[in-house]
Amino acid sequence: MSHRELDDMLGTAWRKPPLVRRAWLRWTLLLGFAVYLVAAFATIDVDWGRVYEGLDRGWAFVMSFTRPDFVSRWSDIWSGLLESIVMTVAASVVGIAISIPIGLGAARNIAPLPVYVICRGLVAISRALQEIIVAILLVAIFGFGPLAGFLTLSFATIGFLSKLLAEDIEAMDRSQAEAIRASGAKWLQWINYGVQPQVMPRLVGLSMYRIDINFRESAILGLVGAGGIGATLNTAFDRYEYDTAAAILILIIGIVMALEYLSGVIRARVQ
Amino acid sequence: MLRLKNLTKTYRTGDQALKGIGLDVPKGQVLALIGPSGAGKSTLIRCINRLVEPTGGEVWLDDTELTHLGAGALRKARREMGMIFQEYALVERLTVMENVLSGRLGYVGFWRSFLRRFPQSDVDEAFRLLDRVGLLHMADKRADELSGGQRQRVGICRALIQNPKLLLVDEPTASLDPKTSRQIMRLITELCAERGLAAIINIHDVALAQMFVPRVVGLRFGEIVYDGGPNGLTPDKLTEIYGAEDWEATIRKVEDEEEIEAAE
Amino acid sequence: MPVLERGGAQVWQRRTMGERLVRWIGWLIGLVVFAVCWQKISESTTWFFVWDAPRIAGDIWDRATPPKWEYIARLGRPIWDTLNIATLGTMISLCLAVPVAFLAARNTTPSALFVRPVALLIIVATRSINSLIWALLLIAIIGPGVFAGVVAIAIRSIGFCAKLLYEAIEEIDATQVEAISATGASRWQVMAYGIVPQILPAFAGIAVFRWDINIRESTVLGLVGAGGIGLQLSSSLNVLAWPQVSLILLVILAAVVISEWVSAKVRGAII
């Protein structure tokens, strides 16, 4: 805006300057968005009759949360839940153990270039593939059962944890690590004394968070036959046994809340 | 015009911030409130427009008693009192003009303000005020692009566009350099004189207060221990206000200012 | 500092005997738990299949390559559906998440005692349950199709968006809000002028971030019948049409990479 005098400006209207200054671009964006919305809604074709019918069932489901049925399918629920927990624990342990060396390798400031490229590639593959797709492939290869689920979760853990660990190492305080190196430490000693103390609190926090995610994911792997509570839940929905489904969902929510609480406590203690 | 009667404030922690303050501010008088940190200066100012709820006592603005007003009436009363803040408290992601116009919020309905369709008279007044403080060319800049002194000028415009009877000013110069501090103080006192406004200015820089205001009130531990002209502030009085230890620190702080000789 | 007397010499140790004992017991328990978990997984695994896995994997690879490129012509509509599920789902969830976030944030909630716990419960419940499970549930209620996918994504995202948003609301600068209240503004005006401008950048960032995640999730929703490209994946898997499967996986991978790129660009532009 050019420098204008007060007298020119008095009596002129004032408008908030628009976010996008070029008018044609602003209108093109708005119009494009509107056209997209119309097109998107037009292609959804909702069967409103079916939705209307479903409202009763939806209400029945909501009501079933007030009287969840833990009892009649307890043995199924219990074995499914146990399998989920077992997969979570085993996959978290193995995944965290593997992701530490890979995380070190994926940090540019401590790994040589070839190692860095390989580790980053591994991380990228693991992150691009979603758990459920990995699970489908692993079930096809290893057969049904928790082994496929365990491998899936371990693989996903590696992608998640290695990346964040590597970023943390890359952001660490260089001078502390240099001081240890200057004392003539070997590579492993250097990692142990110079790097580990700096990234440990965050590693613990992230690991706790990943355990939480692993449990949530383990609840769906059963849908494709990779073990866990998902299979039981799927069966419950198929049979329209909403009270059992509600019981399972309540258990999942409860465990996730407990895990979140636990990880909060642990994170507060390490930091 | 403003009359405080036995105003008290006790925080939930048990700290007594104000112990029965009585104060009279006539129309058009500019008054400086000095005292050490924690003396209750900020609390006193905030109790007047009830950003902090007072525990007891009365606040009279002309013929209205403020401490018992309901939400709607309190909003009407707040329009009469412009407030200027220590860290400017501009909404940083809004433009200068929006910040100034936000002073009219008490007069404009929700949708009008939401759509930024302020009455032309308000917009003109905003232009005039910005011109008065020399920031008209910045009207469409975002507030976080401004320097400290410029932000405080915008803050002053926001308070004045409310068309208040009284300005409540909380440490207006605490975040500014000495030169800008004086400019801002001069601007505030000049504007008060132009418009016949009363003002209560919290300030911890005693020398600056003495330079610009005709009346100084000293607060210590939530009680008024001095009320008089700027020249009555002898070292003894300052010791009484700030306490022996704090006083040393205050002297050192304002040592370079030539006004300190006048005080001693 | 724990110092031990040993044969007249003082030996420095990092931890006292008690501490070391606790640590050892901790590690031992961890090891036992892991062993038990592994035992569990091993029990329910048919090891014959596992030993056979390399051959099967090679077999699948042979059949899946090269991908059936001409099949892409039939993926246009599913890709469009997937995009719509993610975009519309994100928009609906944002509309719902905003009020929940305001009710959950300590500084804006109307009642910390009654309203806030409810809002937090909504956040936890929607967050802990995977979108595939929501889809399963919604298909049981309103029937299969794109609409179920949109609603599933919308519900799943409420908790995520509301959590990040309420944290942003709790971090705002209180004096700016105070300044607006001091002008005599009403409650809603304080919201519009004091709070909203401060959280707008966070809001935009959250929206784009969640949209990116939702593109990922919506690609697999079809596995349970909730529309999108997952539907094609599921039917191709059912008839063991591996060349189609590999093409679909490539498309999903591309979608994930593109959405991540877009989201990173947009977030970079906002911040």
Spell out the helices and strands of chain A N to C. Answer: HHHHHHHHHHH
Number of helices of chain A: 11
Q: In the CATH hierarchy, what is the superfamily of chain A?
A: MetI-like
Please describe the biggest sheet of chain B, giving its number of strands, its sense, and whether it closes into a barrel.
Answer: 6 strands, mixed
Q: Under CATH, the topology of the largest domain in chain B is which? A: Rossmann fold
- Give me the CATH fold name of chain A: MetI-like fold
Most extensive contact? A-C, 56 and 54 residues
Q: Based on DSSP secondary structure assignment, what is the total number of beta strands of chain A?
A: 0
Give the CA-based shape of chain A.
Answer: flat
Number of strands of chain B: 10
Q: Give me the oligomer status.
A: heterotrimer
Number of domains of chain A: 1
Helix-strand topology string of chain B: EEEHEEHEHHHHEHEHEEHHH
Shape of chain B: globular
Going by helix content, strand content and strand pairing, the class of chain A is mainly alpha
Please state the CA-atom Rg of chain A, rounded to the nearest Å. Answer: 27 Å
| Count of helix runs of chain B | 11
Task: Explain what this protein looks like in three dimensions.
Chain A has 271 residues and is mainly α. Chain A is built from eleven helices and no strands. In chain A, 78% of the residues lie in helices and 0% in strands. Chain A has helices spanning 6-9, 23-44, 48-64, 74-105, 113-128, 131-142, 146-170, 174-182, 187-221, 229-238, 242-270. Chain B has eleven helices and ten strands. Chain B is globular. In chain B, α6 (148-160) runs parallel beside α7 (178-195) and α9 (235-242) crosses α10. Chain C has 271 residues and is mainly alpha-helical. Chain C contains ten helices and two strands, in the order ββαααααααααα. Chain C has helices spanning 17-43, 47-64, 76-104, 115-128, 131-142, 146-170, 174-182, 187-220, 229-238, 242-270; strands spanning 3-6, 9-12. In chain C, strands 1-2 form a two-stranded antiparallel sheet. In chain C, α3 (76-104) runs parallel beside α6, α3 packs antiparallel against α8 (187-220) and α7 crosses α8. The interface between B and C is medium-sized, with 34 and 21 residues.
